[in-house]
Amino acid sequence: MILGMGLRMIFRMNSKMNSKAGSNRLGKSLLIVSLAALMVMSLGGTALADAEQDRQVREIAQSLECPVCDGQSVADSSAPLAQDMKSVIRRKLAQGETRDQILQYFVDRYGEAILRDPPKQGFNQILWGLPVLGLIFGVWFLGYTMRRWSSRDQASTPSQAPAIPEDLAVYEDRLENELKQRRPRGKRRKSGNR
Amino acid sequence: MSKITLSVVVGALVLSVVFGYAFTQRGSAGSADPAAVRVGRQASDFSIKLFSGEEFRLSDQRGKAVAVNFWASWCPPCREEAPVLERAWQAYKDRGAVLVGVDIWDNESDARAFMKEFGITYPNGLDATGEIAIEYGVTGLPETWFIDRDGKLVRRWIGPLTDYQVSAFFEEALR
User: Which residues from chain B sit within 8 angstroms of residue A108, using beta carbons?
Assistant: First the structure.
């Protein structure tokens, strides 16, 4: 349509120019240049549309796990099945189907495992929620452990600790007494031997 | 029991309850098993141009027990299975059973050579775009879907079939 409008404009301009003497050559050149420009614009538009569709195909294929590959997306896989799936995505996009409709089409045939990001419902909700639960538990456990450590440190501060030297004094006294008791016996044994 | 042991036990109990609930909800949310997604549903209609030149349409087979076998000439287990399927075809083709081979990820000349090698006479065609395979959630070869007389998917088998398995299906479906 754009090409048609452009052509009509050029022909109108050209016919006006033709009415003036000596403008024939200029008119022809202008016509050729304009036609070339329109063709380039038209081709560029098609290329842009193709690039946009390629981007959409890739984006959807990235969301799908290749069913016959190990941890690869359909976009990254060169397996025949992945190639066929990309063709199906392209065809469905051309038919006007949305991203969600296309993803649902594959889920209906291959199950939810085909989605690289499982939806946040049912069992998957737990998978999404587990890291948060783990974080909450981790923070609680850290706090609990630190509280225990700090209370143990307080219990062993020097102001409440003189119990140890006292205990030591008791043991020292006991040791001294025992040594005293043993010494005379040793002397007796020595003198007896003489 | 110390406070920390009690916390761990309570935490484990809560997690068990949560996982238990999640597993019971799993069926309604969908399943990782492709067979669970499809078995019990109405088989999607498809048509395929056979190597004989005729057109095969699944919906035309209503009232018959149908086995749809996906295969390729380069697939070693398909070679193992080919004589089994031909024997089943010979035994059940006049009793209201249909067997159709859908050749995928293959080229026609190799497929024809394969059929000649194994003397295959049951209907076969090339799914050049792989769309029938995707429609049936095929993940590997060979793979066979069994469809009852009402057009409902009743069984799926991944891997080469044995004489016993094919006969069991057809006998049950044709009873």
Answer: 37
- Residue A135 has a pLDDT of 86
Distances (CA, A) of B23 to A108, B32, B40: 20, 12, 21
Q: Are residues A101 and A173 in the same domain?
A: no
Do residues A14 and A87 both lie within one domain? yes
Say how many C-beta atoms besides its own lie within 10 A of residue A169's C-beta.
10
Confidence band, pLDDT 50/70/90 cuts, at residue A192? very low
* Nearest neighbour of A123 by CB, restricted to B25, B38, B134: B25
Query: A111 and B37: CB-CB below 8 Å?
Result: yes
- Preceding peptide of A184 cis, ω within 30°: no
B133–A109 C-beta distance less than 8 A: no
Stated pTM of the model: 0.64
Q: Are residues A147 and A183 in the same domain?
A: yes
Q: Is B10 on the interface with A (CB under 8 A)?
A: no
- Is A144 found in the same domain as A108? no
Domains contained in chain A, number: 2
The minimal CB distance from A80 to the residues B105, B135, B137 is found for B105
Choose among A67, A84, A126: nearest Cβ to B22.
A126
Q: How many CB pairs under 8 A join A and B?
A: 79
CA A65, A68, A72, A73 torsion-angle sign:
negative
Considering A117, A140, A167, which residue would you say is the last residue of a domain? A117
Query: Do A105 and A149 fall within a single domain?
Result: no
Angle between helices A24-62 and A99-110 (to 10 degrees): 40
Domain covering B35-174, topology:
Glutaredoxin (3.40.30)
Tens-place pLDDT, residues A91-142: 999 999 999 999 999 999 999 889 998 776 666 666 667 778 888 888 888 8
- Listed by start position, the domains of chain B span 3-30, 35-174
User: Which of chain B's residues have a Cβ under 8 Å away from the Cβ of A83?
Assistant: 130
